[in-house]
Amino acid sequence: MSLAEIRARLAATDNNQNTRNNRNFDNSVYPHWNMAEGKSATVRFLEDSNSSNPLFWVERAMIRLPFKGIKGQSDTNQVLVRVPCMEMWNDTCPILTEVRPWFKDPSLEQMGRDYWKKREYFFQGFVRENPVAEDDLPENPIRRFIIGPQIYAIIKASLLDPELEQLPTHHVQGLDFRINKTSKGGNADYTTSTWARRESALTEAEEAAIEKYGIPDLSSYLPKKPGREELNIIKEMFEASVDGKPYDSEKWGQYYRPAGMSAPSSSSDTSSKPSVAVSKPAIDDEDDTPWKTPVSYETKDNLIEKAAKEQDSGNKAEDILAMIRSRKTVN
Length: 331
Fold this sequence. Notes:
Blueprint: H1 3-24, E1 40-45, E2 58-68, E3 78-84, H2 94-99, H3 109-114, E4 118-129, E5 143-147, H4 149-159, E6 177-180, E7 182-184, E8 187-189, E9 194-195, H5 204-213, H6 228-242, H7 249-252, H8 297-310, H9 318-327
Antiparallel strand pairs: 1-4, 1-6, 2-3, 2-4, 4-5, 6-9, 7-8
């Protein structure tokens, strides 16, 4: 093979890869995680069009199932498949039911953390200052934001501040939010992010965009709630993952699959398929386990029992709900 042929083949491979990446990337998602360290992005959140949701975000809880490669392939590099956690719908999650007792045994605690749910929060709004070079900006400027626990904690704490008199999503008296990216311990850190000090109204262009495109229903960004069949598949995949087996695309591909993998060609029913992860958001991915810091073994039994009963109620938003209901005004 000549050098020219090698270069042509490599170029074709790159083009194919770019095509696959573009197909799986949803440019409505604003990739704030791609900011360089020391940079900031200014965004303006909008309300949820779903009147049954008084919050201006929705929570997505997913569990990562690692597999040793894909069945039938020689490559045994780890692949991850994300499945929805049933606690997202306030139902019992079969995986967390299995995993919770692992925290009683120090030798299983790390594995328990690996299989614990990861929370992300979906917001939407405008990007007012953008330090990220985006080659393919969406026509609709109302962007989706995938926010991790660090930034969410800042937003939640600010909303509970009694000095905040108006919701930051208000079209006239709202507040911008500044996402600041630094680093800590070699990882991205967003803990210096903050609200703007001054109120500002939406611009004419932003109001025109809302009039043209409408404000989406945030629940449309969440995965479909698994039914009995999907729950059986999730339990089967979990057991295979723990046992160190490879991912079986023939058995599970029509339900849940690694990001970027196409559905099996023989499958015609797509009603139960979750959407493939769009970009790979390197958001602040803190453990969302019941215990952020190590605790003594003697106290774990009590903590686990409490966690099982409360279902992580301390991380839920009932306190914010009451506050927002009391402050919510028509924009």
